[in-house]
Design brief:
elongated, 21% strand, two-stranded antiparallel ribbon, 11 strands
Length: 374
């Protein structure tokens, strides 16, 4: 696509309507199967738990007539028999369709969300010889719905894609969290001045001057504190958060109002080994807008995207083991997995693996219901 889908396009009520906005990347000559029908087949197969091209082709060949009719598959002959797209047709469309447009049109609208988290992930299985693996920068709401994602060009990094990823969306009053890589002055100005949003960025040694300035602040004198304790995944963890208003203290970063120091103490329940880590964060939120408890929650929400998106794609969908490498295939298959995760969460599934198993028991009806395809 030349430009991102408009907000009106993303707000269309059905998945079918939204996908119809995308341009068909195929040449007009010889086209037999409707473009949207091919994409819907791929989306349904992924929602049924498919992990490979072979599984996608097998589902398409076995799909009954009523399922193909609901998906808009083409008809042939005097009896108007529905004909499923072949594996080669599905693969040709999926690897060629615009990855940014597909991600924007199948994601969750972040308008009105409390927080969104931005983070990148490498699709390791897409590496082939000297060709590097595809790197995807994604954004997810605090309740675990993927908004969109964008492939990072091979000769650059996530920093250059941050604004392009978030630019199409209404982020007014939304708090955007990101890891230390995105603690950039340009990102802060983009969020506050252009998007009327807020930010909370982590700060590590990749910003040595800012990191040193934060370390030198009078943390021992801070009385605004928050303690959180939790146990799980074989460890006990205590987080101590101290928050300080830094206006007028000379921090060289635009719009920053508060800084936080988060001390994490972790004890491995099996070995008894204790580890300690100190993390700093900065935000444009004032003390009236964000208490120490709120700051701690915001910092914690940044890890949501790792646990509720990247980890699920790697384990439940075996994303890192996938050998899909051609064209936009890795990015678009990841987008269809995001769509399946969103649909399963909307249906009330807390476990994505359990939701996929349930969908696989009725592979030609349940995925269509989850994706609201009538």
């Amino acid at each position: 696509m030349i430009k991102s889908p408009s907000r009106q396009h993303r707000a269309l009520p059905s998945l079918v309507d939204r996908l119809s906005v995308l341009p068909d990347p195929r040449r007009r000559r010889g086209v037999r199967h409707p473009f949207v029908a091919v994409l819907l087949v791929a989306a349904c197969v992924v929602t049924a738990g498919a992990r490979s091209w072979a599984a996608i082709g097998q589902w398409s060949r076995a799909a009954p007539q009523d399922t193909l009719a609901r998906l808009g598959a083409r008809t042939a002959g005097t009896l108007r028999v529905r004909v499923a797209p072949s594996l080669s047709t599905i693969r040709r469309v999926v690897i060629a369709v615009c990855p940014g447009g597909l991600a924007d049109l199948t994601g969750q609208d972040p308008a009105g969300a409390d927080t969104v988290a931005v983070d990148g992930k490498c699709a390791r299985g897409s590496r082939h010889g000297a060709v590097p693996a595809v790197h995807l920068l994604a954004v997810m709401t605090g309740d675990g719905r993927t908004v969109s994602q964008l492939p990072v060009p091979g000769k650059t990094n996530e920093i250059t894609c941050f604004a392009a990823l978030l630019a199409p969306f209404d982020l007014r009053d939304v708090v955007v969290t990101a890891d230390a890589l995105h603690t950039q002055t340009a990102h802060a100005r983009f969020l506050v001045e252009r998007k009327q949003a807020h930010f909370l960025f982590l700060v590590k040694a990749n910003q040595p001057d800012l990191f040193a300035a934060l370390r030198s602040l009078p943390w021992k004198e801070v009385t605004a504190r928050r303690y959180d304790r939790e146990a799980g995944h074989g460890r006990r963890e205590t987080r101590a958060t101290r928050v300080l208003t830094v206006t007028g203290l000379g921090l060289d970063f635009p719009h920053v109002v508060q800084a936080a120091r988060i001390l994490r103490y972790r004890v491995d329940t099996a070995s008894g080994r204790c580890t300690r880590e100190t993390v700093y964060a900065i935000t444009d939120l004032t003390s009236a807008e964000a208490s120490p408890q709120r700051i701690a929650q915001l910092a914690r929400s940044q890890w949501t995207i790792e646990n509720r998106l990247h980890h699920i794609r790697d384990t439940t969908f075996a994303g890192d083991a996938s050998k899909i490498r051609t064209g936009h295939g890795p990015a678009n298959l990841a987008t269809l997995r995001n769509l399946a995760i969103n649909a399963l969460r909307d249906a009330g599934h807390r476990s994505i693996a359990a939701g996929l198993r349930e969908a696989s028991y009725e592979p030609f009806t349940r995925p269509l219901k989850l994706l609201d395809i009538s």
